[in-house]
């Protein structure tokens, strides 16, 4: 099973997301039906390399946020229109 490292973020908005992307990171969110959402900061290169694998989309992933480990699945990915860049990712609890 694939594992991703993420950090929690407190800020939201367009300017914060742009600052993240300049530093080779991008925003994401983890949500589910009965649990509260967690705003995330992810490393672009790590996720970009993993998303090339078939298992990234079809199987469950482990998401490490600090000391906590969550079993998640990819819900949606936003990509740049013509650059090979990820802009945002949504995960759901499994």
TrEMBL record:
Subunit (UniProt): Part of the 50S ribosomal subunit; part of the 5S rRNA/L5/L18/L25 subcomplex. Contacts the 5S rRNA. Binds to the 5S rRNA independently of L5 and L18.
Q: Which organism is it from?
A: Buchnera aphidicola str. Ak
GO terms (molecular function) for this protein are: 5S rRNA binding; structural constituent of ribosome
- What highest taxon heads this organism's lineage? Bacteria
Q: Which InterPro entries does the UniProt record give?
A: Rbsml_bL25/Gln-tRNA_synth_N, Ribosomal_bL25/Gln-tRNA_synth, Ribosomal_bL25_short, Ribosomal_L25_dom, Ribosomal_uL5_bac-type
Can you say what this protein is called? Answer: Large ribosomal subunit protein bL25
Q: Which family does it belong to?
A: Belongs to the bacterial ribosomal protein bL25 family.
Q: Which Pfam families match?
A: Ribosomal_L25p (PF01386)
Residue span(s) of domain Large ribosomal subunit protein bL25 L25: 4-91
* Role noted for this protein: This is one of the proteins that binds to the 5S RNA in the ribosome where it forms part of the central protuberance.
Give the organism's phylogenetic lineage: Bacteria, Pseudomonadati, Pseudomonadota, Gammaproteobacteria, Enterobacterales
